[in-house]
Amino acid sequence: MPEPASPQPIRAGDGWRLPGIANLHSHAFQRAMAGLAERRTDPADSFWTWRETMYRFAERMTPDALHAVAAQVYAEMLEAGYTRVCEFHYVHHRPDGLPYDDPAEMSLALVAAARETGIRLTLLPVLYMAGGFDGRPLSARQRRFGHEVDAYLRLFEALRAREDETLRAGVALHSLRAVPEAAMREVLAALPARTPVHIHIAEQVGEVQDCLALRGARPVAWLLANAPVDAHWTLVHATHLDEAEIAGIARSGAVVALCPTTEANLGDGLFPLRAFLDAGGRWGVGSDSQISVSPVEELRWLEYGQRLVARRRNIAVGASESVGQTLLAGVAESAGAATGFDESDDWLLLDADAPVLAGATEQDVADRWIFSGNRPLLREAHVGGRRVVAEGRHLLADAIAADYGATLRRLLAA
Q1: Which position among 92, 198, 237, 382 bears the catalytic label?
Q2: 210 among known catalytic residues
Q3: Is 240 a catalytic residue?
Q4: Which end of the chain is more exposed for a tag (fewer CB within 10 A), N or C?
């Protein structure tokens, strides 16, 4: 059954059918630490203190553990309505920083998990070279992440050679603070046309301040002036923008990947959504740290955050006065460029018999799905003609969960 041309739900038999949703930013391994960084370690707890907990957890990951955790989170994504995922992958090497015998071993664990679960994967190996804008070396906790440019490009090409109808390879520049300018230029010059390029940027106020001090410009302004940013780029977070940067991103055609539940969990701040929509900007959502694996929750809190700041309702509206329809149109419009899957026949079926959808119409079903509570309404998910979710559960959910549970117990006992 082909994907409907419209991103809005349409009545199909005993359900509501709509396209699968693209998850534009994922760190799969972090699913295993969800809920384990919610105890205060410092009176000024922030992203920077959370990062230390994340580093300690990353040290424990093996290829087998990564496969088990990724399979669990990818199955959860499919049950929630994500059918494509952009995996921003930076745990590359052994804990001592030396490569595995196959330098792609950790990446291939993710590919295997995606193929097992049936989700479409855009694998974005991360280039991570420096510990800050001042070029300091990577710390001991970052040594699993590091690459020199030549080795990084070999990894990208090895993954690109494996592309098929369910796998795309792109590149991820970890951030401006972690990738020196010369290395960024060398990597970008080596890429085939239309390669998806993702980058963390302007997530934290401290990052903006450091970029101003050491590069003389705000992060997004610097990037737009020094890189060929276009419709194949995805800027992750881009939380702290001025008016010129908002307009510049919109003009470039780049997508902004917003991760409202993670941004809230880390205390990052709120993206200026209304101004970005007014400028014609493109955006999508991602599950990032996996403290929530739900496009409904990301979309709901994207809108709710704006309401709390503006102290009024119904902020994200566009061609439609329906917030839900506008949100679904937004994630659908950005999916192809950000993931590299220009077209797909992936689709979802919502349960028309669910109480919260009683009497629903095509005019209100999107709003009901996003804003009517937390009961899962997804009945089926289909990817590339294959049904992977039935009656709300992934077809391999029990076996995947058992492997994940055993793996998590081992990780926590380490």
Answers
A1: 237
A2: no
A3: no
A4: C
